[in-house]
Amino acid sequence: MSIIHPVPSGSKITWGRVGIVVTILAWIGYVVSTIIRQFIDYGGSFRFTMEALSYLVVVTFLTFSALMYLVARQGALIRFRDHTRAPRGMLDRHFGDTRSQRLTVLVPSYAEEPDVVRLTLWSAALQEYPYLDLVLLIDDPPNPTDPDVLAKLEATRRLAPDIEEALREPRDRFQGSLEAAAAYLATHDVDRKAVKTLLREYRAAVAWLKAMAEQEDVVDHVSEFFVDQVLVGLANELNLTAIALQAALDQGGLPEADRVEELHRRLAWIFRADLTSFERKRYASLSNEANKAMNVNSYLGLMGHVWRPHDTAAGLMLDEVESAEPGDLVIPDSGYVLTLDADSQLLRDYCVRLVFYLEQSENRHVAIIQTPYSSFRGAPTRIERIAGASTDLQHILHQGKTFHNATFWVGANAVIRKEALEDIVEVQNVGGYDIKTYIQDRTVIEDTESSIDIGTAGWSLVNYPERLSYSATPPDFGSLVVQRRRWANGGLLILPKLWGQVRHRRHSRERVHLTELALRVNYMGSIAWASFGLLFLLFYPYDSRLLSPLVLAAALPYFVAMGSDLRDCGHRFSDIFRIYGFNLVLLPVNLAGVLKSIQQAFTGEKIPFARTPKVRNRTAAPAWHVLVPYLIVGFSILTAYRDFNQHNWGNFSFAVFNAVLAGTAIRAYIGLRASFVDMGLGVLNWLYVERRPKKVAAPEPTDAAIDWAGILYFGDRRLARDLRRPDDRRRRVTRARR
């Protein structure tokens, strides 16, 4: 898709406003003409009254979500219309005249495929930025015993040094040409020789990128995107500059000396990046929480300091020191931090354009800027394509949320002002070491909760209105279940924080617009009420008197707008029906996530973070999540049969509609064979009970076997003895520190 969104026409914006008005009027008309009229004309029994009230609640919440879609979309259209892209020359001048702060790219990785992480690192390493540090945060267990797992970990560890070595030749060349050009222009005016030298360097950069593109193995649509959009896209942009320089020579015109030096500097910055990797699980003094947020937090807490590793009976500890010595860990500080998922890719202008926005005087209050990711084109599976279509719709909606000051951080990528993170950090001393939490891990949707924290601290968030980042969507139903169940878990828990932020802002005499509040509430709660609402509509036989064409009229603008947006994103208008079926098969997944939120609210126990599997093979789905879509189809057919005999044509049509779309979705997105395999595995796993090994009391150690180092460190003989068992060491040490 195009980086720049097409400018919407005036009629498209007008029809968007009409859709909003129609939705509101249709809902009001339904309440007056159907609900109120039924009670005035006929009264109602207790059962009918309860049905009417519950049906009205369901319709109201679903209509509210549809309305919020239209409102956010309308804001996005206005932003796309008004967006003016900063010229290339302005960017070069800005980063050449001002000493921009260092940017650190953090790529958290856990059990990822090395070739997928490699593409992500390359897309970040080729970003044009003056001072770029790229850190791969490897969260795998550092000492696996499985040879295959160890080989995969070693391949991941080699990624950073291999990429830095590959960049060495072009980096040295273009840095040398920059220094030579600066020295030449300091004593000479711009002449044809200087321009020819610059032209030669640009052609060399284009040749290097195209040579790399030819050597890449294109094994799937993600690697094809990397070659076409990252490597060749950057080469084409540099080649365009070369064409302009050649035209200047042919036409007898020469650029100014400052511009020549800026263009040399641009090449040097593209191929200059410092790459390293970091493994927090090597150090017992860092958090061991198994989630992405604490992986990132651990490194953020070390930035700007010098750390000396210190071996103890509990493991390797990091102690802060004033000056560095050989073997110490030096973590430079940065003004900006870019968090990037290990399966995402950035296009060439991501860093310079987003940081340029942050460094404008009117944007000093902005803490986080991002381009909500789009989906990779050409996915091989139906479920990946339809999940990608829903992702592309979310990209548009997030742009509209910024229009109404209701931006949420979408964790796949974002440039964060480090100063803002320091405003929301929480410090907890565990076992004598400070554990810093910048990004909250209380829920499994850490980016959403951190968005509220950032807003409460007085900062704002912005979505940049261009497509500059892409990310993978799960390729099968099993991995999609893990992702969507995590997305559905946590929104309800964060709502009280939103109310606290609203009270804080009102106390500070800051106006909170109703539209902003409505969009935020819908973002965090819509999965809950949409899932329960759809559940009621599917399985409860509501009285036919409650049905009305006005309900369809209220939903029609939403579906028409969605179809139009899908078509603008390169999908089909008819994908609105596929997305509806997609949501039907995901109903048990979303309900499971919502129920987990309710469980955490009552128990106070944190729900474990479940990472989305990113493997080449298919991920098996839980049997219950596969069975429920079949139950939806069966019950819809039964409902249709009953309503046909009762001549209840409204409910009959709805039941047939659900049965057809749910059945089609099962076949397309889960697969008949795969669904039966997963249900069979679920039954076997339920029946199978693993035999527990017999517990053998550990003998008391003799004097010769006394773990003197452990006793001296812990002051506890039993704990020191348990440390001999490597499998239990980290768990017991963590418990002791707590």
UniProtKB/TrEMBL annotation:
UniProt keyword Repressor present: no
GO cellular component: plasma membrane
Entry's transmembrane regions: 20-40, 52-72, 521-540, 546-564, 576-595, 623-641, 648-666
Record membrane topology: Multi-pass membrane protein
One Pfam short name: Glyco_trans_2_3
Key word Lipoprotein present: no
Keywords assigned by UniProt, alphabetized: Glycosyltransferase, Membrane, Transferase, Transmembrane, Transmembrane helix
Name of this chain's protein: Glycosyltransferase
Organism annotation: Aeromicrobium endophyticum
